[in-house]
Amino acid sequence: MKIIRHTDQDHDKALRFLNRRCLPPAELRQTVATILDEVRDRGDDAVFELTQRFDKANLRPTGLEVSEAEFKAAAKPTNPDLETAVAATLENVRQFTRQSLRTPWHNSNAQGAHFGEVFHPLGRVGIYVPGGTAPLVSTALMTVPIAVEAGVPEIVVTTPCGPDGSVNPALLYALSQAGATEVYKIGGAQAIAAMAFGTASIRPVEKIYGPGNTFVVEAKRQVFGYTGIDLLPGPSEILVLADNSARADWVAADMLAQAEHGKDSQVGLITNSRRLLDEVIAQLETQSATLSRQEPLRHVLEHGTFCILERSLTEAVNLTNAFAPEHLSLVVEDPESLLPEIRTAGAVYLGGLAPVAAGDFLAGPSHVLPTAGAGKAFPGLTAEMFQRRTSIVRFSQAAVNASAPIVQTFAQVEGLDAHGRSVSLRTSP
């Protein structure tokens, strides 16, 4: 665990790690590029081989797609509480999505031309749902329903299978309830490649969504431009910005909740309270000892955890914006007063009574959020990412006449006389 105090002699130098950029190492870039090339060149054969190599699953006998029989077997969850939980989350996500969809609008400019925008759903999208260390049932519910509400007709999901070639039945149940139209039992960079380039079994998609490990995120980065990409959501992160009013046990519990996602998770605390710093550090050790996922937790506590003591909340806010956390838990006496100063967080949880886990599973906004500093430029997953925007322009004769002199000026300055003529020919005498 990294502990930094404003009284440390090398304080400023020690904080440099907070100002991150989402730039993968060269070795990772090359490994992913090789996988993408294999799938693009050899299609299904490469996907089968890569799935055998990385997931130890032989999918050749059954194929890549989840069968109707597999979906039927998962149609009713064995845990009755899961049915209730899935329904509750679906309702919240659908409600939030409906309120945030873009709708057509129109207006007119100073010259009298009418302009506006119309929005259409994408036709075929691909969604990656992680399933390596844990079946992320919640991710199915935080992605697929948004595409459904946006009106997308074809929603393709890829998710890693187990060594026996099966997908967790709770995840299949959630995917079916959420509205996925196709599900394939593949993960990693090869899944991103298959959705981007297409294979004999998987038709290519128009845009790819969803979180994943570093290989998945890098694969999305490399296919950007060939296909659309939502954002770069990688391993989970939380930063807690807290003052003396925060409860140390709640803060530590939120940090550990994100740490248990996997060894690459990043969890941090920035506070102006020495008492809180010391108590949170103690609580992290005490609470982590009672949790089940010891291997990732111990690794994150040792390598991916930082606790920082600053002189003031102003300095803490500056460091928060530099870090651009996926989740920001803003546990201060008056969180609303600081909220306008937060410019880079993927999602902000206001006050001690707002656990990040409730946002992960239930609240309504998607938990697919930018990580590794990408929040400086990317938002979290939104409904409009499943829509295509088209601008509309219509001119009357009066609007053409009023616009022509301005267009002629630009055409002359830029040396594009055909532009000017195309407008002047339309002006009335």
Please give a quick description of this structure.
The chain has 429 residues and is an alpha/beta fold. The protein has helices at 11-14, 26-42, 44-55, 68-73, 80-100, 137-141, 144-150, 169-178, 188-197, 214-223, 248-259, 274-288, 294-303, 313-323, 335-338, 356-361, 397-414, 417-424, and strands at 2-5, 105-108, 114-121, 124-128, 154-158, 182-184, 207-209, 228-229, 237-242, 266-271, 305-309, 327-331, 347-350, 387-394.
Report on this model:
- The protein has 429 residues and is an alpha/beta fold.
- The protein has helices at residues 11-14, 26-42, 44-55, 68-73, 80-100, 137-141, 144-150, 169-178, 188-197, 214-223, 248-259, 274-288, 294-303, 313-323, 335-338, 356-361, 397-414, 417-424; strands at residues 2-5, 105-108, 114-121, 124-128, 154-158, 182-184, 207-209, 228-229, 237-242, 266-271, 305-309, 327-331, 347-350, 387-394.
- Helix 11 links the parallel strand 9 (237-242) and strand 10 (266-271).
- It is globular.
What proportion of the residues is helical, as a percent range?
40-55%
Mean pLDDT: 95
Total count of strands: 14
Low-confidence stretches: none
Largest sheet: 6 strands, parallel
- Our count of helices gives 18
Query: How far apart, in Å, are the first and last alpha carbons?
Result: 78 Å
Secondary-structure-based class equals: alpha/beta
Radius of gyration based on Cα positions: 25 Å
Q: How would you describe the shape? A: globular
Major sheet strand order: 1-11-10-9-12-13
Strand content: 15-25%
